[in-house]
Amino acid sequence: MQVRDYLIRRLALLPFIMLGVSIIVFTLTRFTGSPVGIYATPNMTPDEVAALEERYLLDRPIPVQYLAWLGGLLRGDLGWSGVSVAPVTEVIGSKIAATLELALAAGLIAVLAGIALGTVAGVRRNRWPDHGARFFSILGASTPTFWFGLLLLVPFYLWLGWFPLGRSTPEIYSSISHFTGMYSLDAILNGSPVAFLDALRHLVLPAIVLGFGAMAIIVRMMRSSMVEAMSEEYVDAARAKGLPERLVIRRHARRNAFVPTTTVIGLSFGFLLQGAVAVELIFRWPGLGQWVTSAILSGDQATIMAYVLITAFIFMTVNLAVDVAYAYLDRRVVLGG
Asked: Which helix (H) or strand (E) covers residue 188, if one does?
């Protein structure tokens, strides 16, 4: 199947998948109780609460409530966020931008460091760089994210004061225009080195913590793929042609080893979004994770629905991009399904 046909087919299926996800999540959230609590106040009488339920159709069966919610979604209305005291559509843009900035920075660290360490470990199999990379990957895969975050927070924030909490210094943040909502990117677009350095100081620690686990998995996968690729006949043939070893590794072994690693990278991005919940709480990062945590504790079901739909959409989009990249890297792959 051609890439164009595959993309059209997957994009055509996307609305139906999102519809199925929304039905399941909406039903599950209603099993946890009525969302009227997020709209009511302690001083309301039972009659006033009943009137509130009638106003938002919360006294109707779940299918009727879902159709009302779906109608609002098609009109661009995702409901009222009780934790933000504002419509969901007014808040969610800044939350998505903050979390995407953190996830992309963590993903960049994980991919660049993971591929480099995995390549070195695979080429120098059973030598000290290989042993070091394997130890590093085991450490990264087994260390809880929140604990690793605290380990970095104590020396670099409390003792040295190099990296502050939060996402920005308010005075510097308000001094530039925000075209994308991503602070570091907006600082570049504004040509402000002060804002860019401020963005980096706030971004470095949470990005390292979030990317550490994903980096360990990529190292492991890249190392195994490199070991297998280095023993293939086409690598011996490249050497027999007299190519320098660095070209053999870069053009032949690493390119082929990168094919299975691509799938792991795509899956890792989805886990980065999930891991952002703990990291955002530790570092006070005002993104989707911190937002949905407050929503869960408060029973804010409109916010929970928006979070699940957004993360499902991002996860499917990333996996679609990975499938296309996989076919590009390995021409033998036939897209389908």
From this structure: helix 183-189
Q: Along the chain (337 residues), what's the average pLDDT of each consecutive run of 10 residues? A: 76 88 89 76 81 82 90 87 87 90 92 91 87 85 87 91 90 91 92 94 94 89 88 86 85 82 79 81 90 86 88 84 74 60
Which part of the chain has CATH 1.10.3720.10? 93-329
> Which residues, in sequence order, are CB contacts of 276 under 8 Å at separation 6+?
99, 102, 103, 210, 285, 287, 288, 289
Strand bridging mode 80-81 / 86-87: antiparallel
Q: 224 with 264: CB under 8 angstroms? A: no
Nearest C-alpha neighbor of 54 from the set 41, 71, 40: 40
Length of the chain: 337
Instruction: Find the helix or strand (DSSP H, E) in which 87 lies.
Output: strand 86-87
**Alpha carbon distances (Å) from 89 to 30, 84, 85, 230:** 21, 11, 12, 51
* Architecture of domain 93-329 in this structure: Orthogonal Bundle (1.10)
Q: How far apart are CA 125 and CA 105, in angstroms?
A: 30
Location of structure tokens 């299918």: 63
Helices and strands in the chain: count of H runs, count of E runs: 14, 2
Number of Cβ atoms within 10 Å of the Cβ of 135:
10
Separation of alpha carbons 156 and 137, rounded Å: 23
Neighbours of 203 (CB within 10 A): 22
Contact assessment for residue 217 and residue 225, using Cβ atoms and an 8 Å cutoff: no
- The 3-state secondary structure of 115-170 reads HHHHHHHHHCCCCHHHHHHHHHHHHHHHCCHHHHHHHHHHHHHHHCCCCCCCCCCH
The whole-angstrom separation of Cα 203 and Cα 102 is 7
Q: Are 318 and 272 in contact (CB under 8 A)?
A: no
